[in-house]
Amino acid sequence: MEPATVQSLNPQGDLVVGVDGSQESFGALRWALRQAALSGQTVNAVYGWSYSWDMGPEPTTDDELAKLRTQIAEKLRDWVKDAAEGIDISSDQIRLTSFRASGASALLEIGSDAQQIVVGRRTLGRVARWFSGSLSSSLAEESQIPVTIIRVENEDQSVQDEIASALTPGSQEVHFELPAPDTPRTSRPIVVGVDGSDTSRRALEFAAWLANLNHAPLHVMYCWQLKDMTGIPGYETSVPPLDVAQQHAEQVVQELIASSTLPEGLPIKTDVFHISAGKGLVSASRYCRHIVVGSRGLSGADAHFLGSVSKQLINLAECNLTIVH
User: Fold this and answer.
1) Which three-class secondary structure string do you get for 114-147?
2) Where in this chain does the record put each UspA domain (predicted)?
C-alpha cells in the first residue's frame, strides 16, 4: 500500500481515538473532541477489548456474551460522556465502537479510512509495555495514516522526583524540574520537522492544516548535520563549510514550502539549526504545543522501519506528537 497523500487524508475524515478508561486515553479523547468541535469532524471512540480475568467468568453462551458486550458499550458511553463535558460538540459528531480485538488491531482496522488515529502516549501497564511495546509505537509503525500521540502532563513525575532526591546529598527533598516558558501550552506554535523528503512534505501539509484549524503559528524546522549535506554544488566529494551547509539547508526548507499546498495567510516561520534532528526536535517539544514529523526521512535505512527520529520523539517528546506516513 502506498503511503497516504495529504489529498487523501480528507480534512473531514474521522478522528479515530483509542479509549480504554486510562488517564492517557481520556486525554487523547478530550483532544480529539476539541479538534472536532473546531473542524466539524466526527470522533469515533474505539474500545478494542479482549477477555481478561477481571471481567468475571468467561461467557459460555450467546446471551452471556451479549450481556458482556452491553456492559462494555455502557462503559464506553460513560467514558465519552465524561470526556465531552464542557466541549461544545454535537452528539451527531460522536461515534462509539467497541471491538473484540487488541487495541492496536482494532484501531488499525477501523481507522484505515480515517483522517488520523489518536492515542494517549501510555495506554498499557508497565509489564505489558515491557513485553509487547507501547500501543503508540506499534500504531506509528504499522499505520498508513497519521497517528497523533497525546502526552499527559507530568508523566513519571513522581519517579523523576525520587531520582532527583536520591542523587542529591543530604536529606533534602528535591523536585525534578525542567525549564519551560511562561507562555501557556495552547498559545505556543506548532512545529513540523522536515528534511526535504516526500514524507516530510506530507508532514508539513498536515501540520499546516492543524495550525490553521487552531489559529496557531507554524514553525518549519530543519535540523541538520554535515553528514546529511549531500549534493551541494562544488562539494560533491568534500565536506562543505558550515556557512555553505547552513545556506543549503535554508534553501531546502524554502523549496519544500514552495512545493507544498498550504493554507493562505497562515503565519509560517522557518528555523534551521545545526544539530541532530532527534536532539533538536526533543528540545523544541519543550517550547511548542505540538510536533509533526514524517515516519521516515531521507536515509535509505529508514525505508524499512519507523525512522529513528520518530522513535525518539515517541519516547521523549514533551508535547503532543503526530507521525505522518
Assistant:
1) CCEEEEECCCCCHHHHHHHCCHHHHHHHHCCCCE
2) 15-151, 188-325
